[in-house]
Automatic annotation (TrEMBL):
Protein's recorded name: FAD-binding domain-containing protein
Residues passing through the membrane, by range: none
Alphabetized PANTHER family for the sequence: CONDITIONED MEDIUM FACTOR RECEPTOR 1 (PTHR42685:SF22), GERANYLGERANYL DIPHOSPHATE REDUCTASE (PTHR42685)
Domain FAD-binding per the UniProt entry, residue ranges: 4-338
Molecular function GO terms recorded: FAD binding; oxidoreductase activity, acting on the CH-CH group of donors, NAD or NADP as acceptor
InterPro entries with a match to the protein in the record: FAD-bd, FAD/NAD-bd_sf, Geranylgeranyl_Rdtase_fam, Geranylgeranyl_reductase
Length: 427
């Protein structure tokens, strides 16, 4: 039997970030991951600027820079009608304002996750890969039984086994509530791949979307993500919807000679803010295990990194006194509710956007008004505050923009706005 102060199940960004910040503070921490490393994770590998603060604290930016497959310098969101919102990459600073930065990264998860796990290991984490947790007996201490017949004991457990992991499932009754599914493929020979990451909206995707992330030399990481209930109502499977998506006018020509490398892979996304998903007694949930996925984009890496750090900070507090004060773990829950409240607003906005009329209203306004367009894309990278979309000022301004748009003589202003949008170079 092996005993540690903290046992982490899962070595993705959430588990590695927690392990790094704990080990750095001298906490005895063991991390188990079921896979042999390096391992891939079905993902777009798109890092938003929201990841950068934790990556900087972990001192891994240089390695990410070296291993990144691509550095993107902007965004395009394509509407079903072929309109485009274009924006630059922005980073939100601590005072809440956002600033343009030259680029951010697309990086394959085998490289990215290995950088993080190695960093946690170097900081002093006892990392065991190829060890699958099978069962948990919660207690003081808790016990985790593995597939290979070993037992690990720890005072505090961090569950970081991702969307649909077995240990998360052990604690969660509503595993599939608020869930989505995504499918991803790598393609080569794609035409007109610029230096921006692209998103595609379509009625067939409900409030989901398709993405196209460049990897260089005409290679891309592409896929779609959509709500499982919506998919069920449509009586279609996710691969079928994806293939139909590639036939849409915005993609058909560009994908005409593209070749799929390997196979399409699907993976669940556990999303929808849940204030009770962060802690159960001395068990903390981080990353996807805590439902920390941004519903407007399916982005979860930045939340995984941040929640890992918050969990570590709360645990360090526990051991500040001569005998551990486990009540201090409540700090983790409180901080998560505060730090990730944007997920609540994003969930509301996502529900509104599920109505095609609202989506089109918002979309047309964003194409017409450059400032609103930047704010809309800013939601994807968290450089704009999603809660402000619900304040009176923004709602009133939206109607003013809509009136201006409609009143513009013979659609002249609209044409200019369209021209302006289309003239922003893809590269
Ligand atoms: C198709 C798709 C595209 C996506 N694209 C993006 C994107 O571009 N950008 C973005 O920010 N987010 C994206 N996401 C979301 C992102 O992948 C997740 O939010 C992120 O990986 C969460 O990190 P995590 O550490 O919580 O979990 P994971 O990264 O899932 O890590 C969980 C780890 O736990 C291990 N594990 C599981 N079960 C056990 C067990 N029983 N015992 C031991 N170990 C176990 C696994 O091997 C794995 O290493 C995408 C998701 C999907 C499905």
């Amino acid at each position: 039997m092996s005993k540690s102060q903290v046992l982490i199940i899962g070595g993705g960004p959430a588990g590695s970030s927690a392990a790094y910040f704990l080990a750095k503070q001298g906490i005895k921490v063991t991390l188990l991951d079921k896979d042999r490393w390096p391992r891939d994770k079905v993902c777009g590998g798109g890092l938003t600027t929201n990841c950068l603060p934790v990556l900087e604290k972990m001192d891994v930016i240089e390695q990410v820079e070296q291993k990144a497959d691509f550095k993107y310098n902007g965004y395009i969101i394509h509407s079903p009608e072929g309109e485009q919102i274009k924006a630059s990459v922005r980073r939100r600073s601590e005072n809440g304002l956002s600033k343009q930065i030259p680029y951010c990264y697309v990086i394959k998860r085998d490289s990215f996750d290995e950088i993080l796990l190695n960093k946690a290991k170097k900081a002093g984490t006892n990392v065991l890969t190829g060890v699958e947790a099978k069962k948990v007996e919660e207690g003081e201490p808790s016990k985790v039984l593995t597939k290979d017949g070993r037992t690990f004991e720890a005072d505090i457990l961090i569950v970081a086994d991702g969307s649909g992991g077995p240990i998360t499932r052990h604690f969660t009754k509503d595993l599939h509530k608020g869930s989505a599914i995504a499918v991803r493929g790598y393609y080569s020979g794609v035409k007109d791949v610029g230096s921006v990451i692209e998103f595609f909206l379509d009625d067939e995707l409900g409030f989901g979307y398709g993405w196209l992330f460049p990897l260089g030399d005409g290679r891309i990481n592409t896929g779609i993500g959509l709500d499982t209930a919506f998919l069920k109502r449509r009586k279609k499977n996710v691969r079928q919807v994806f293939k139909e998506m590639l036939e849409k006018p915005q993609l058909k020509e560009r994908m005409a000679e593209a070749k799929l490398e390997g196979k399409l892979e699907a993976f669940p996304l556990r999303m929808g803010f849940d204030k009770d998903a962060f802690r159960h007694n001395r068990v903390l949930f981080v990353g996807d295990s805590a439902k920390l996925i941004y519903p407007l984009s399916g982005e979860g890496i930045s939340y995984a990194l941040q929640s890992g750090e918050l969990a570590a900070n709360a645990i360090v507090e526990v051991y500040q006194t001569a005998s551990p004060d486990y009540k201090k773990l409540a700090r983790y829950e409180i901080e998560c509710r505060e730090s990730f409240s944007d997920l609540k607003y994003a969930t509301r906005l996502q529900k509104l956007m599920a109505r095609p009329k609202v989506q089109r209203f918002f979309y047309k306004n964003s194409v017409y008004d450059e400032n609103l367009g930047q704010r809309a894309t800013g939601m994807l990278e968290h450089s704009s505050d999603v809660s402000t979309f619900f304040n009176f000022r923004t709602i009133a301004k939206s109607f003013i923009i809509a009136i201006k748009r409609k009143l513009s003589l013979n659609g002249k202003d609209t044409e200019e706005a369209q021209k302006r949008a289309k003239s922003v170079s893809q590269g």
